[in-house]
């Protein structure tokens, strides 16, 4: 089963988006004059900056970072506000919002609320939730 997400990049990002698309293996193809057919698993890991302003499956893409209640300078694009501090956890937990790229396998911290899977990005988790559990 292959989930395809139709993405129409913002005009200003189209060139960067196309460059990203042809760099994938296999290439991401266009599915219309303006849209790219992006496999869901690729979508989960694609760079945020080429998605900003795009239309995803007919809906305007909302950046989790840009949509955050308090926006931080672009120096830390991956940072998200924590919903609440965990009080009874030991204080030596590493800061998992660091900019270090996930090397796969580790617990990314975005757990699916419906099944035991975990994801390294919120977008990955959301994509999974939408695809597997049919939430929109
Ligand atoms: Zn799930």
From TrEMBL:
UniProt domain C2H2-type: residue ranges: 110-136
Phylogenetic placement of the source organism: Bacteria, Bacillati, Actinomycetota, Actinomycetes, Kitasatosporales
Location of the region described as Disordered in the Swiss-Prot/TrEMBL record: 61-136
Listed Basic and acidic residues bias regions: 115-136
Protein name (Swiss-Prot/TrEMBL): C2H2-type domain-containing protein
N-terminal signal peptide: none
Provenance organism: Streptomyces taklimakanensis
